[in-house]
Write a structure and sequence with these properties.
Length: 420
């Protein structure tokens, strides 16, 4: 098994099965870290850090930065700079993660993924005024934004003078027109309470849009693309000319596709009927919609696609129904967004399910031949997370699997803002 460089497609060996992650550095998880190394020693430094820390994925932009993803919770960027000190013993050194930096102020900047950024249309260097404005959007992601603020405060407490960058999942969707983001409720709620479609997964949709255009050798400005981020949380976006014009998630990540434990689209009267019949208060109903529905709610088995598929193959009818509903929702959104854009050039599948579940991709695209979609059955079935075109050579619409890398985009934005 190998992982691949998203830019150069160079194979990188996977870690051994018995490899264990080292101890965390200062207990700060989920943030990119920047470690400067001399340009002349970049190759040796990559080998050194990879061996010493047990990294299992390496992405690089030649001449700019090297991105090492450490397990599921820690990213490190090696930023080549002429001024950086030379590593003493190179690849032969063996150190624990707590010894990566000789002192914490060697970290150049921290990039934070922010689920809901409200009206921020691009990544921002954090300032006091910017932070106060962002805090007014906390209610848009009550499960995500408060922990993100705690993470930011923790970094400030440890390294008070270090630059911080917020990369917003909602920024990519700020190009949507009002006809796409407004809800047909009294307008005053938009004015008073920010009730509108904000979307989510924008960092992923943005990454795969750019990447698929590079892969196909086309300019984003000329393309009509439907990006399908299909994981335990899932969303679809319509990207016309490189800009998002619509997306399936709404005020919160609850709307849109059927997900692992979320309902996706549902008639509001269903919510009211269940609350009335079961005597549920708003918080209890929110839990039901977000944590007890979706694949889990329909199958009665699991929110894990693999377990639901295993049950369906064993003859479980509810599991089979859950899978049919799941793929059907994706197909509906692809068709709807093709109509919204007045055409379709490319469909992209990404994220855990989109990258690895061939049958979901197949069922979500079958019967779309009238749109010019022809998926190569064998190529699609053989693909398990590789960057690859899975449509037939004569398919007018390209169907492509593109592994997402939100962390790399967060790191790249952070580097660009700090350098600017």
């Amino acid at each position: 098994m190998s992982t691949f460089n998203a830019f150069e497609m160079s194979p990188v060996p996977a870690p051994s099965e018995d490899a264990q992650p080292p101890e965390p550095f200062h207990g700060i998880y989920g943030m990119p870290m920047f470690v400067t190394v001399p340009t002349s020693d970049l190759d040796a430094s990559v080998d050194f850090w990879t061996e010493a820390l047990g990294f299992f994925t390496l992405f690089s932009i030649p001449g700019q930065l090297v991105h090492l993803r450490r397990w599921a919770f820690q990213d490190v960027l090696l930023v080549p700079t002429p001024q950086a000190p030379t590593l003493a013993d190179g690849p032969s050194m063996s150190v624990s993660f707590s010894c990566v930096l000789s002192q914490i102020d060697e970290i150049a900047a921290a990039g934070h993924r922010i689920v809901a950024g409200g009206r921020f249309a691009e990544s921002r260097l954090v300032t006091d005024d910017m932070l106060e404005e962002w805090k007014t959007y906390m209610d848009l992601a009550p499960l995500h934004n408060p922990p993100a603020l705690k993470g930011y405060n923790a970094v400030k407490a440890v390294v008070p003078n270090m630059p911080n960058v917020f990369v917003f999942d909602t920024s990519f969707h700020q190009t949507m027109p009002a006809k796409a983001y407004m809800y047909a409720v009294p307008y005053e709620y938009y004015e008073k309470n920010n009730i509108r479609r904000w979307g989510a997964h924008g960092t992923s949709h943005r990454f795969v849009t750019d990447r698929v255009c590079k892969l196909l050798g086309v300019k984003p400005e000329t393309q009509k693309i439907v990006t399908c981020h299909i994981g335990n949380g899932a969303s679809v976006s319509a990207v016309d000319g490189g800009k998002c014009i619509d997306t399936s998630m709404g005020l919160t990540p609850l709307e849109g596709l059927m997900m692992g434990t979320r309902t996706g689209d549902v008639d509001a009267s269903v919510v009211l009927a269940i609350m009335k019949s079961e005597g549920l208060d708003p918080d209890q109903m929110q839990t039901l919609l977000n944590k007890k529905s979706g694949l889990l709610g329909i199958s009665g088995i699991s929110s894990d696609m693999r377990e639901v598929e295993t049950a369906a193959q064993a003859g479980n009818e509810r599991a089979r129904l859950a899978l049919e509903m799941y793929s059907y929702r994706i197909k509906k959104y692809i068709g709807a967004y093709a109509a919204a854009m007045g055409g379709l050039d490319t469909i992209v599948f990404t994220a855990g399910v989109g990258e690895h579940q061939w049958d979901i991709r197949y069922n979500a695209t079958t019967d779309l031949e009238f749109l010019g979609v022809k998926v190569d059955y064998e190529v699609n079935r053989a693909n398990f997370g590789d960057e690859q075109i899975i449509s037939t050579p004569d398919s007018r619409v390209k169907v492509v699997v593109v592994p997402t890398d939100e962390e790399l985009l967060i790191a790249s934005d952070t580097l660009a803002l700090v350098q600017h």
